[in-house]
Amino acid sequence: MTLLVTGSAGFIGSCVMRQLVAETDETIVSIDALTYAGNPLSFGEAAHSPRHHFEHADIRDEARMRGIFEKYQPRAILHLAAESHVDRSIHGPAEFVSTNVIGTLTLLQVALDYWRGLPEPQKSAFRFQHISTDEVFGSLSPTDPAFEETTPYAPNSPYSASKAGSDHLVRAWHHTYGLPTLMTNCSNNYGPYHFPEKLIPLMILNALEGKPLPVYGDGLNVRDWLYVEDHARALRLVLERGTPGETYNVGGAAERKNIDVVHTLCAVLDELHPQGAPHNRLITYVKDRPGHDRRYAINFNKLESELGWRPQESFETGLRKTVQWYLDNPDWVASVRSGDYRKWVEKNYEGRN
Ligand code: NAD
Ligand code: TYD
Questions:
Q1: Active-site residue 313, yes or no?
Q2: Strands 255-257 and 222-227, bridge-based pairing
Q3: In a domain, 271, yes or no
Q4: 339 found inside a domain
Q5: What pLDDT does residue 294 have?
């Protein structure tokens, strides 16, 4: 049995990969273009497994994708490859439409042709699993109920609009062609191997270096946080037990205001890395992100009641593990903070003070 995983060198894809290699007997073919966000060091132990085959390829390269399906004859594909950072999408939206929409279209076409040619029972068992985000549902007020699977789409950023576009394609490929698709919409993830342009790893590394902790706007925007290993477990469960054509919300039951996240993080750092305490003296309010969504919240009752999934980590236990991981892995951190990373930090934060 072989599984394809796209975006396998990224934050969530690499976690899925490491879990699959450690906890199953399957062969994993991992596909990644190794953009700035992809790092083969994130494969961890899975890098050396004889059951892991890495294909350095772009999902928009139709011929390569056809070749990979042909060669490995997968039983399913977990599609995580994407441009994933809202701030970058504001500076350069075209790449988001290209990878997230055209890349997904390319994979859907290749998977559809492959699926049509499969004999039974492999054809009925095949799955195209698309990994999406809660950001496609737009922004909530403090009193709105959490997003459900039936909440209408209202994406507000170039990132979420491009993810919404890809979600609609996946839905249509099931409805029109019968491709057995699965989709998940998940809240904000955090954990080990997270690229340090996103809130939590950026704050950890800035705090360790005594740099300002840049909180956008009034710091009262709310996100729901899920530990990445819990997300990976949810994805594996949906792959095995989800119903084709259905979507599943995945969340952490951990809504937090950004400023509270940063204060909690500072308290954990004070304990695990007391040099530099109190770290919250570094908190600096900066100019807001344009179009900044106020609140996301996820109702994951469907996943819990139908498939029995719940997060295993609380925000506090997950955050502690995350901080400890960054303290223990300076080599990984150094490997992702290239010249390009420094250029991005300058571009995103200049003029915000
Ligand atoms: P990430 O940016 O860390 O990783 C994305 C990976 O995709 C990188 O390894 C990159 O090299 C690869 N990639 C980008 N363009 C590619 C292309 N054209 N061809 C092949 N590979 C390409 O992102 P992530 O946080 O791991 O997110 C993975 C998926 O989960 C995305 O689809 C994202 O929308 C979704 N998601 C993320 C979160 C989150 O909090 N991070 C939450 C919900 C959903
Ligand atoms: P981010 O990690 O970029 O995820 P997303 O925008 O997809 O939710 O940001 C999480 C929250 O943190 C979001 O409300 C923006 C805010 N934020 C800051 O306040 N400062 C920062 O430097 C960054 C990167 C994000």
A1: no
A2: antiparallel
A3: no
A4: no
A5: 98
Q: What is the CATH number of the domain that holds 160?
A: 3.40.50.720
Instruction: Enter the pTM of the model.
Output: 0.98
Determine if ligand 2 sits within 6 Å of the CB of residue 258: yes
Q: Annotate 28-52 with DSSP letters as a single string.
A: EEEEE---TT--GGGGGGGGG-TTE
How many domains is the chain built from?
1
Asked if residue 130 has its Cβ within 6 Å of ligand 1, the reply is no
Question: 282 lies in a domain?
Answer: no
Task: Name the percent of the chain lying above pLDDT 70.
Answer: 100
Contact yes or no for 165/99 (Cβ under 8 A): no
Residue range of the domain that includes 237: 2-194+225-254+292-313
Tell me, yes or no, whether 44 lies in a domain: yes
Best CA proximity match to 193, nearest among 331, 81, 56:
331
Residue range 1-52, pLDDT digits in tens: 899 999 999 999 999 999 999 999 999 999 999 999 999 999 999 999 999 9
Determine the distance separating the centroid of ligand 2 and the alpha carbon of 297, expressed in angstroms: 15
Atom of ligand 2 nearest to the CA of 293: 14
Number of the ligand 2 atom closest to the C-alpha atom of 197:
24
